[in-house]
Amino acid sequence: MATSMAIESPIPVTVLTGFLGAGKTTLLNHLLRQPEMAATAVMINEFGEIGLDHLLVEALEEDAILLQAGCLCCTIRGDLSAALQRLAARVEAGQEVRRVVLETTGLADPVPILQTLLADPAIGRHFTLAGVVTLVDAANGLATLDSQSEAVRQVAVADRLLVSKPDLADAAMLEALLARLAQLNPGAVPVLAANGAAPVEALLGEGRFDPADHGEAVRGWLDASAWNGHHHHHHHHDPNRHDASIEAFCLTFDRPLPWQGLATWLEMLTATRGASVLRVKGILDLEGQEKPVAIHGVQHVWHSPTLLSGWPEGEPRRSRIVFILRDLPRAVVEDGLAAFVQAARAS
């Protein structure tokens, strides 16, 4: 039986952020296999009512905590505080937790999250904000920084910057991205992380997050005296909407899907409406395949499907595909997918 114990020193919390499709889950899966990451608790927030990332992080077992309250920057503060307090109780009951990694949804403005971790006295009794790691997609990073204010803030508050998918960007594009990152955050030296591989030190680092290490704009954002507990954006509190133009939803299929029809439709969708497809992520039950297949897409870029080791324990065997779309009606996706799947089954 575990014995009760006090938390002698604050447990470090690292915030892992980055825009949609930057590769946060892939990075976590790589790092959590390293011995230095033993006894790490991971908290995962996902945008929308149905999350998948907690099923795709393979090495977490009981230490995966899903914070599923929609847009983290709007509604997660209370959930985050409560989840950390529950984790503290588990540690006091004898469970070993050396560190916490909080993976934010790609649409999150990290500033209110950091304010919560820095200013909430209930959190401060047992935890300390150790740093912010921001992942930036080499292929889409420049366009994302131009169009998404959240992505700019994710970069600006980072202690450590990781550039994912450098193999998908040519030399000129990569050089331009690195220059933009240096402009936004001159204190963080970017590390290239091909295929989600990065040294453990890139995530853990040392010390404690200090607003004084960042620029005047970041210090202003994090000024707790100016924070009244309300988000500075006027986001909808529908858990599936980030703003009026961005919507998330999940399609679920109890019958195995034909890969040919699904793949053809996905190619058509991204070729014709790729700019509106911010993110597609799914776990698929395919015809003729016993193991689940994971798919990942960001705008016009699709990654090779991944065969998982098995179906997550306790989860029903069925296909679930999460879409995050901008200015694209849900009905267009549902109707198009249904037509291609039906045609493939009939052939």
Summary, kept brief:
With about 350 residues, the protein is of the alpha/beta class. About 35% of the residues lie in helices and about 20% in strands.
Topology of this structure?
Blueprint: E1 11-17, H1 24-31, E2 40-45, H2 53-56, E3 64-67, H3 72-75, H4 77-92, E4 99-103, H5 110-119, H6 121-124, E5 127-137, H7 141-147, H8 149-156, E6 160-164, H9 171-184, E7 191-193, H10 200-204, H11 216-221, E8 246-253, H12 259-273, E9 277-284, E10 293-298, E11 301-302, E12 306-307, E13 319-326, H13 330-346
Q: What does the model show?
A:
The chain folds into 2 domains: 11-226, Rossmann fold (3-Layer(aba) Sandwich); 246-346, 2-Layer Sandwich (Hypothetical Protein Yjia, Chain: A,domain 2). The protein has 347 residues and is of the alpha/beta class. The model is unreliable at 47-64, 66-75 and 224-242 (pLDDT under 50). A 7-stranded parallel sheet has the order 3-2-4-1-5-6-7, sandwiched between helices. Strand 6, helix 9 (171-184) and strand 7 form a beta-alpha-beta unit. Helix content is 34%, strand content 22%. It is globular. The protein is built from 13 helices and 13 strands. It comes from Teichococcus wenyumeiae. Belongs to the SIMIBI class G3E GTPase family. ZNG1 subfamily. InterPro entries: CobW-likC_sf, CobW-like_C, CobW/HypB/UreG_nucleotide-bd, P-loop_NTPase, Zinc-reg_GTPase_activator. It catalyses: GTP + H2O = GDP + phosphate + H(+).
Please report the distance between the alpha carbons of the first and last residues. Answer: 59 Å
- The level 1 CATH classification of the largest domain is Alpha Beta
What profile does the largest beta sheet have?
Answer: 7 strands, parallel
Query: So what's the overall shape?
Result: globular
Query: What is the topology, as strand order, of the major beta sheet?
Result: 3-2-4-1-5-6-7
Low-pLDDT residue intervals, each spanning 5 or more residues: 47-64, 66-75, 224-242
- Give the strand tally: 13
The class by helix and strand makeup works out as alpha/beta
Radius of gyration: 20 Å
Secondary-structure element series: EHEHEHHEHHEHHEHEHHEHEEEEEH
Total helices: the number is: 13
Number of spatially distinct domains: 2
Helix content: 25-40%
Question: Architecture of the largest domain, according to CATH?
Answer: 3-Layer(aba) Sandwich
CATH topology of the largest domain: Rossmann fold
Task: Round the mean pLDDT to the nearest integer and report it.
Answer: 76
**CATH homologous superfamily designation of the largest domain:** P-loop containing nucleotide triphosphate hydrolases
